[in-house]
Amino acid sequence: MKREIEAWISAVAGACALSIAGFWYWISWNDGLSLPLPADIGAVSQLYGLALLGLIFQFGTPALNIPAWALGLKARSHWAAKAGMAMAGLSLVMYVAYMRFIFKLVTTL
Fold first, then answer.
1. Are 72 and 7 in contact (CB under 8 A)?
2. CA–CA distance, 87 with 80 (Å, rounded to integer)
3. Is the pLDDT of residue 37 over 70?
């Protein structure tokens, strides 16, 4: 029973990490990875929402990957743990790709 709870927590953490990363990609995709321009933002509330989403992506994705992997490895025989680790792995790849894009953008300025 304890391993099943860990597996489900891993699945939920992985799904949350993947949904955050996927939503950030959906917002920031413009024929490739890009930063949303301030000219595209119509109101101050949209700017605050974009900043909040950026913070959630920046800190929430890695923070949710840790429990997804830690609990998923304990219960790796359960299908939910495998799914949670797979979703966490995909969100981590998306996070690293976006950070690579940001570092490349900053170094070319």
1. yes
2. 10
3. no
Q: Check residue 47 and give its pLDDT.
A: 74
What pTM value is reported for the model? Answer: 0.81
Residue 72 CB burial class (10 angstroms; 0-12, 13-18, ≥19)? buried
Phi and psi angles of residue 33, each rounded to the nearest 5 degrees, phi first: -65, 135
Residue 29, beta-bridge partner list:
33
70-79 confidence digits (pLDDT tens): 999 988 899 9
**Where do we find the tokens 């953490």?**
13
3-class SS at 29? strand
Closest CA to 51 of 32, 36, 29, 64: 36
Q: In this structure, what DSSP letter does residue 38 have?
A: G
Q: How many angstroms separate the CA atoms of 102 and 25, rounded?
A: 13
Query: Can you count the helices (H) and strands (E) in the chain?
Result: 4, 0
Query: Distance between CA 3 and CA 21 in Å, rounded?
Result: 27
Beta bridge partners of 33: 29
